[in-house]
Design brief:
Elements lengths: L3 H18 L2 H4 L2 H40 L3 H29 L10 E7 L4 H21 L2 E9 L5 E9 L3 H5 L4 E7 L10 E11 L13 E6 L15 E6 L4 E5 L5 H24 L1 H11 L7 E6 L4 E4 L8 E3 H5 L4 H19 L2
Parallel strand pairs: 4-9
Antiparallel strand pairs: 1-3, 1-5, 2-3, 4-5, 6-7, 7-8, 9-10, 10-11
Helix pairs in contact: 1-3, 3-4, 7-8
Length: 360
């Protein structure tokens, strides 16, 4: 049974948020709008599901009364047919309500900062890191998201030792967060004359993007170094000290950025990444068990700690976190950015676990 008190609380909260959003002081505050807007959208969707369920339940009760009290056989037959249809539909409507009532990760609506690093496998790992970047670029294009490169470190054969980029749009972190972990590739490198299959790996870390208000960086806690860029960036590369390295002294975290032409732009981007990393640490401390799994899986880039395998000879992508019936996908589709089915399966599995926990 659905908790009726919880349904009432959702409706009341929607009324509260609607009222807050109508206040001029809130409408003029970007921070409050950014916080309340997504909550209002989620609450409205939940209330829509609740309304559909309650309407069907009321109609079922009315039909039962009609069947009990009516004397016209034809009307009774019609009512029974309609009741059978509603009774068949009610479990799906109830499940939809339960899904909407599961507490959402408050970070899901945020943008994301994605870090891809080549792991085991030398030049082939660097090329695989580049392939993963292209995969997410295509996925972002399909979703209508905006992707902005923060920093790159060139690897062998035109690949990446590391690439860091921002992704902005609706529900970005909520979909990309499942990409955190070690990705393994099995294929024959173009440079392999004997046709021998190689296994390489790259790690992906997805961090929720945060604002300066949420994570304030004290100037005295930062060491900022500037130096001459060594990668792509236009005519000013190697002629000005535009690259920036920021060290957060209390934590020891280091962020570098050199992809923009100006020192100021690189500094702004580096600070955004620093805030995201510090915020991720806060999340990790608050949710120790869940985030410890993520930190351990992303850690070294070793191919033994894999979450997903890209098998080129078999044209198959296998996600090792999913049940056997749902874990295999077409490599050609995935590598072209078609992650929809895979993300849906991962979100559904995660949702089921959280729903079971929430109803305990």
């Amino acid at each position: 049974m659905i908790d009726l008190e919880k349904l009432l609380q959702v409706k009341q909260r929607l009324d509260e948020v609607t009222q807050q959003l109508s206040e001029p002081s809130v409408a003029a505050d970007p921070e409050q709008m950014a916080r309340l807007g997504p909550e209002h959208r989620e609450l409205a969707e939940a209330v829509e599901a609740i309304t559909a369920y309650e309407s069907a339940a009321r109609e079922a009760d009315e039909l039962r009364r009609l069947i009990r009290d009516e004397t016209d056989p034809e009307l009774i037959t019609m009512a029974r047919d309609e009741l059978a249809h509603i009774v068949e539909e009610l479990p799906q409507l109830e499940e939809a309500v339960r899904r909407k009532l599961v507490p959402k990760d408050p970070e899901d609506a945020r943008g994301a900062i994605v870090e891809i690093r080549a792991g085991t496998g030398g030049s082939e790992a660097a090329l695989f890191a580049k392939d993963l970047y292209r995969l997410y670029l295509r996925f972002a294009d399909r979703r209508g998201w905006k992707l902005n490169v923060v920093n790159t470190s060139a690897g062998a054969a035109g690949g990446f030792k590391e690439i860091v980029f921002e992704v902005s749009g609706r529900d970005v972190f909520g979909q990309l967060k499942y990409e955190s972990g070690v990705h393994r590739v099995q294929r024959v490198p173009e440079t392999e004359s004997s046709g021998r299959l190689h296994t390489s790996a790259a790690s992906v870390a997805v961090l929720p993007e945060v604002s300066e208000v949420e994570v304030h960086l004290e100037p005295n806690d930062l060491k900022i170094d500037v130096y001459r860029s060594s990668g792509p960036g236009g005519q000013s590369v190697n002629t000005t000290d535009s690259a920036v390295r920021i060290t957060h002294l209390p934590s020891g975290l280091v962020v570098t950025c050199q992809d923009e032409k100006s020192q100021r732009q690189n500094k702004v981007k580096a600070l955004r990444v620093m805030r995201a990393r510090l915020y991720e640490q806060m999340i990790r401390d608050a949710r120790a068990e869940r985030d410890q799994v993520r930190r351990e899986s992303v850690g070294s880039g070793d191919r033994s700690a894999k979450i997903r395998t890209y098998n080129y000879p078999q044209d198959r992508v296998t996600d090792h976190r999913l049940d056997s019936a749902l874990r295999n996908y077409s490599l050609r589709k995935v590598i072209e950015g078609d992650l929809d089915s895979l993300v849906t399966a991962l979100r559904t599995a995660d949702h089921s676990e959280r729903m079971a926990y929430a109803t305990q």
